[in-house]
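User: Here's a structure from my thesis project, written as structure tokens. My advisor, Dr. K., wants to see whether a designed sequence matches the one we expressed. Can you design one independently, without my sequence as a hint?
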């Protein structure tokens, strides 16, 4: 299965704070700000958390999801959280007991089971630094073997068909090129470098040939540009398939006849499943009648059938492709929601996947390929909440100044309104807001009485390759203009209060929060910036070297004088004097993507200009908060900020 996706330690929240502030309003006064350290959390201006806030949030924060990870001989592996972070659990029968098999203080997001059975490979970093190490877990003994080199970043693990070897990439800090490694994970001494990157960029292995002699490789340049190769294990020769094309690919599987299966937007606005013949221009397109992106897909063990998901305006449906006939048929009949990560079992008779709805948290499911009969393996828990009260989002479009319709979702609370509004902006920047279940959105709507608007501004994925390119380079502010157009739309809605609008976002969404507060300060009540970019020049200079060129492909190269001048012009840091409304800045100290310096510099600039700011830094987190206690405190502090800025009555 190939599915690119591109995404929060502490103690009880009420005991964390001894801030000298009598109220949230007083805490936001832009005078001297005392920096308080409690455990792993560092904060400024955050008042004590009322018990009522902690208690009500507790239910929403204890919603438990389950993600399908892989098949085993005895059932399935899933990822779920029973403590601080997500770990791997085994489920031997549908809706059976979950047996935890990994026990770490850091999250384990996935597992890849050996084709020989009995073991699986997983990755784990430290404190969110994303320098992932590879580990082999023996399911009989419970023994764990680390097989990667400390201080490197590793991933893309691909097993040989006999389960004797894994192939993976290794990236080093400060280097843009990835090396390729191979060996027996049970014997770390056998792991060796089979390809040294030299000007080759970011390489990701995808699939072994049946005889183990060849590996398919994808080089990622940007969301719109990637290259595909075959790699000869014996000779180390890398051969590009269809060189000279600037198109996107996603995954690359060997078919039994020596051709390859991939998804690509070559000749189309959307990614289609296609068959390519290496060494020729021959291309068979299977899904041209589906005018949406093919996302995750997997090839059956005998190479005859493909299961794939389609991103239909944010929803995720399952379909099947017969390679020989080219016939595409519908998969199982699912409720409205998003199916992701489909994966055949070793017999090819069943497909496992994760399914999530807007009002139902994620669970592990499977279906029978012949009958399409569904099997539910897990049942998510909702913290004792009444699921009937969950808000179903409505899909809508709003016009921007250039005459385009911008897709978005809105969660409307019960009651008459007019409701305060939280505009939640996705990151990426090539991300996409989709109707996933969000306990945070449900809390905001049901407990705070706020409408949540979730736009897909220009530059978002899922709507074709033209749309995703509309914010590239010197068009960066086009996406920000779409927030201005959304404020116009909100102003015209009788049940929304345009005087009480707050922007919220993380990563690139954090930049969008800051840029929106610069450009539309007088129309906003405040903003919450999570691990956000405050200046593209300093961001590109300080992000980790293994990803710097990947980000330059999207944002522009700061070494180009024209781009550098543009970055100076649009920098929230340089325009911080325009931000006079309250701002909450949240950051992980170990963030390798958007370094903590981005948060510190915008905090200082806003303060120097007399602005009002809260600040929260977690010393054991990276690009977002992954540990439950940290995330709990983040949500509690956000609640106080929202109550004050949006003039809410409270969360009791």
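Assistant: Designed independently from the structure alone:
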């Amino acid at each position: 299965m190939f599915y690119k996706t591109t995404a929060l330690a502490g103690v009880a929240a009420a005991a964390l704070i001894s801030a000298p502030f009598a109220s949230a309003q007083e805490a936001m006064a832009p005078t001297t700000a005392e920096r308080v350290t409690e455990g792993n959390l560092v904060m400024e201006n955050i008042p004590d958390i009322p018990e009522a806030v902690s208690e009500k949030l507790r239910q929403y924060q204890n919603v438990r999801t389950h993600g399908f990870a892989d098949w085993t001989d005895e059932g399935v592996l899933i990822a779920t959280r029973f403590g601080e972070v997500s770990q791997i659990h085994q489920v031997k029968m549908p809706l059976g007991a979950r047996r935890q098999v990994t026990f770490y203080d850091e999250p384990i997001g996935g597992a890849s089971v050996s084709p020989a059975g009995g073991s699986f490979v997983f990755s784990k970093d430290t404190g969110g630094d994303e320098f992932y190490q590879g580990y082999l877990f023996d399911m009989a003994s419970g023994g764990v073997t680390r097989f990667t080199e400390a201080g490197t970043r590793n991933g893309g693990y691909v097993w040989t068909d006999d389960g004797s070897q894994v192939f993976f990439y290794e990236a080093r800090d400060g280097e843009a090129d990835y090396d390729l490694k191979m060996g027996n994970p049970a014997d770390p001494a056998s792991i060796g470098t089979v390809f040294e990157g030299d000007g080759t960029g970011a390489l990701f292995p995808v699939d072994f040939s049946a005889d183990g002699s060849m590996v398919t490789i994808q080089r990622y340049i940007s969301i719109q540009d990637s290259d595909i190769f075959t790699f000869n294990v014996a000779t180390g020769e890398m051969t590009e398939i269809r060189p000279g094309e600037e198109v996107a690919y996603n995954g690359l599987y060997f078919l039994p006849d020596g051709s390859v299966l991939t998804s690509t937007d070559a000749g189309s606005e959307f990614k289609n499943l296609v068959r390519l013949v290496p060494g020729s221009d021959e291309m068979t397109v299977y899904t041209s009648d589906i005018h949406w992106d093919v996302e995750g897909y997997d090839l059956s063990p005998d190479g005859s059938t493909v299961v794939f998901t389609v991103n239909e305006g944010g929803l995720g449906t399952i379909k099947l492709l017969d390679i020989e006939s080219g016939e595409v048929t519908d998969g199982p009949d699912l409720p409205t929601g998003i199916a992701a990560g489909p994966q055949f079992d070793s017999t090819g008779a069943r497909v496992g996947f994760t399914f999530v709805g807007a009002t139902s948290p994620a669970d592990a499911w499977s279906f029978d390929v012949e009958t399409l009969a569904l099997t539910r393996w897990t049942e998510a828990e909702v913290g004792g909440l009444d699921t009937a009260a969950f808000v179903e989002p409505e899909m809508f479009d709003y016009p921007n100044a250039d005459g385009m319709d911008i897709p978005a979702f809105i969660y409307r609370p019960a009651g008459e309104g007019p409701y305060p509004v939280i505009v939640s902006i996705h990151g990426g920047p090539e991300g996409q807001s989709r109707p996933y279940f969000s306990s945070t959105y449900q809390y905001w709507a049901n407990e705070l009485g706020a409408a949540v608007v979730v736009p897909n501004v220009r530059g978002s994925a899922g709507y074709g390759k033209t749309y995703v390119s509309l914010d590239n380079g010197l068009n960066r502010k086009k996406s920000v203009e779409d927030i201005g157009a959304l404020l116009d739309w909100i102003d015209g809605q009788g049940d929304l209060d345009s005087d009480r609008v707050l922007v919220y976002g993380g990563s690139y969404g954090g930049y969008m929060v800051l840029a929106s507060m610069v450009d539309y300060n007088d129309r906003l009540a405040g903003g919450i910036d999570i691990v956000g970019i405050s200046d593209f020049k300093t961001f590109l200079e300080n992000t980790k070297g293994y990803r710097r060129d990947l980000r330059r492909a999207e944002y522009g190269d700061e070494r180009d004088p024209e781009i550098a001048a543009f970055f100076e012009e649009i920098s929230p840091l340089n325009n911080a004097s325009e931000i006079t409304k309250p701002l909450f800045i949240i950051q992980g100290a170990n963030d390798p993507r958007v370094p903590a310096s981005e948060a510190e510099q915008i905090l200082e600039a806003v303060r120097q200009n007399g602005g009002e700011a809260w600040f929260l830094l977690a010393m054991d987190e990276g690009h977002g908060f992954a540990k439950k206690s940290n995330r709990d405190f983040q949500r509690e502090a956000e609640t106080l900020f929202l109550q004050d800025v949006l003039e809410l009555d409270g969360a009791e």
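When you compare it with your expressed construct, this may help: The chain has two domains: 13-61+384-645, 126-349.
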